[in-house]
Amino acid sequence: MLSKRIIPCLDVRDGRLTKGIKFKGNVDIGDPVEMAAFYYEQGADELVFYDITASSDARNIMIDVVRRVAATIFMPFSVGGGIRGVADMYDCLAAGAEKVSVNSAAVTNPRIIAEGARQFGSQCIVLGMDVLKVEATPQIPSGYEMVIHGGRKRMGIDALAWAKQAQDLGAGEICLNSIDADGTQTGYELTLTRLISSNVSIPVIASGGAGEPRHLVEVLTQGQADAALIASMTHYGHYTVAQIKDHLHRAGIPVRRYW
Amino acid sequence: MIAIIDYEAGNLTSVKRALDHLGAPCRISNDLEFIAGAERVIFPGVGAAGAAMASLKRLGLDRALKQALDQGKPVLGICLGTQIIFESSQEDAATCLGILPGQTVRFPLDHRDAAGHPLKVPHMGWNQVAWTRPHPVFAGLPPEAEFYFVHSYHPAPARAEDVVGWTEYGLRFAAAVARENLVAVQFHPEKSGRPGLTILGNFLAWDGKEGADAL
Fold this sequence. Notes:
The complex is a heterodimer of chains A (about 260) and B (about 220). With about 260 residues, chain A is α/β, with parallel strands linked by helices. Helix content of chain A is about 35%, strand content about 20%. The two termini of chain A are about 15 Å apart. In chain B, the strands form three sheets. Chain B has an eight-stranded mixed beta sheet with strand order 2-1-3-4-14-13-12-9, sandwiched between helices. In chain B, strands 6-5-7-11 form a four-stranded mixed beta sheet, covered by helices on one side.
């Protein structure tokens, strides 16, 4: 049976981790490569690196991080943030990322999904979606609207329609982030996750709101997610990935338990 | 020296990185002479069967691969490399290499588990393999080990005895096949953590023979 994936998300700025991740032990808490190795050993199923750098100089620093991570861990990881076209995708994939995640740039220019899928295969192209709950209108019938720039800009695009369109364009997976739940640690947006996941045939990674292991149980069952993104609940040492997996296993959810 | 056959089917550097990590000298190559001189051959690939077969033929790599097999060299197929070892693929209705009898077929369009819940295609993520018999390349793996898969098509070998590992995803499909000096897996050992590295390490030490005396 296919295991549900637990995927820590690491924000990187200028080649260093942000958020001052706290860990006990000998881990350099600012070094993405050491943190990747740490999560690999802890049983994470995949990693997401989110490059929150703006400048193109730092872009090359990120590519170097990707190269060093790829030489250290032997499992899939994706890179998102600032991917604007096929050239950016190529840089990340050639450096050793398994997948690239497109978000804002795809909303404004959906063609890059198709171009990336044609060039590298759908399995490489993750669509990142930032979604805001709104009142349902004829333009936004699902009541969920696409936003970009970290939620600051509403796009007037229905999230469900966009997810289906992106799948048709060749996205191989969706990473679905609820702007409302993000950072609250009070649980994933289950209604949104179920809505998207049950209406596309590609895997959906739920993101935003995880604070306790039971939140993952909820989103992987009621939310029908295929994978769950986590950040603060493990970054700050409240839980390990192994503890979360034990909890999921006891709840009857298939997870990878040997690594 | 190990040849990682480059037939323009996706990014092969992850395979090379895993071999580098294991300390095995290797090169990604489409050079027929280099492949002919290699001690063992890895036949990886991601992408679509039709384009892959066209590239293989154009570069003469189909013959190079068959030659390596005829010479008794250990050969490891991975993912698309495994799929096109069979006679044909439903993907692009491609005629494939025919090294093993059987087809590569797509997961059903409305794919469901036994309880009727819809299953996503591609089959993406970690899954277990039920091994049918001991094989030197798959030695030292606990039954609960999982491997990373990402595929929408899967091998359907004609001969049950070619299958060394089955995986369950709504249906049972061949995740690993073996015959003489050929082993081939649908999953990605280079991305499957420690169990994957165990398989690659076993392959590097393998003499291409199967059976009790090889174990």
